[in-house]
Design goal:
Elements (H helix, E strand, L loop, with lengths): L4 E5 L7 H10 L4 E4 L8 H11 L4 E6 L1 H12 L4 E7 L8 H16 L3 H8 L10 H14 L1 H12 L5 H4 L6 E6 L7 H10 L4 E5 L6 H4 L1 H13 L2
Parallel strand pairs: 1-2, 1-3, 3-4, 4-5, 5-6
Length: 232
């Protein structure tokens, strides 16, 4: 397991910082690489960019949008992935109402004069109320670093994505489905759906956790990833 490479994919408006605490908690359990999703216009293009930079064989974990990118990777190159973790994500496409909401969110982000304040306020729907202040501050700084243009571009990519549920039935590798019990953005029922459609997958619901276990509950997330990597 010490030589295994784990590719980690960030979510919407996120960079490597969303995985930093989990990477630290993993220690020398594996070699971690964080995929770059910031310069692509579609989920398949994000998947291609990650595949271009990844080794020939690797384990894969994606959170939120990153889980959808992970499923695009499984569709494009399933033979290269040894283990899969889908964290607080969904496989079904957006409804019309959800696509309209994304369009409205993009308009608000594009027009606000207080992007930092907007980033802080949005955390009420992202992390659990018990999330400490240093986690919240780190998320705000990440949002500012990634910027509004990348957020808008990624939100458009999410609105345009297809139905990824059909990919789940093709999975033939150890798979973990991980979700925060209090996730308001992708509720537990969506992870239960993924678990039901992915053969042999294991479902893990993390108590007192919102949408981002890799930064909210890094020790638990790392333990679940180590257990996944030990499966054959």
């Amino acid at each position: 397991m010490s030589t295994q490479t784990l590719v980690l994919v960030p979510g919407l408006g996120s960079d490597a910082a969303v995985w930093r605490r989990t990477i630290a908690a993993l220690g020398d359990a594996c070699r971690c690489l964080v995929g770059d999703t910031l310069d692509s216009d579609t989920l398949p293009d994000m998947a291609r960019r990650i595949l271009d930079r990844a080794p020939s064989s690797f384990a894969l974990a994606g959170v939120s949008m990153g889980g959808m990118v992970a499923l695009e990777i499984m569709k494009a190159a399933p033979s290269r992935v040894t283990h899969l973790a889908l964290v607080d994500t969904k496989a079904r496409p957006d409804t019309l109402a959800q696509r309209l909401y994304r369009r409205l969110a993009n308009l608000v982000v594009a027009s606000t004069r207080d992007f930092e304040g907007l980033a802080r306020r949005s955390q009420s729907s992202v992390v659990h109320p018990s999330a400490p202040q240093d986690v919240r501050a780190e998320l705000t700084q990440m949002s500012l670093r990634v910027g509004r243009n990348a957020y808008i571009r990624q939100n458009r990519a999410l609105a345009a994505r297809g139905d990824l549920r059909k990919v789940l039935a093709t999975l033939a590798i150890p798979t973990a489905v991980i979700v925060g019990a209090e996730d308001r953005m992708t509720p537990v029922r969506l992870s239960r759906e993924i678990h039901a459609l992915a053969p042999g997958s294991l479902l893990h619901v993390i108590p007192d956790c919102g949408h981002l276990p890799p930064i909210e509950k890094p020790d638990i997330t790392a333990a679940l990833l180590r257990a996944l990597l030990s499966r054959r």
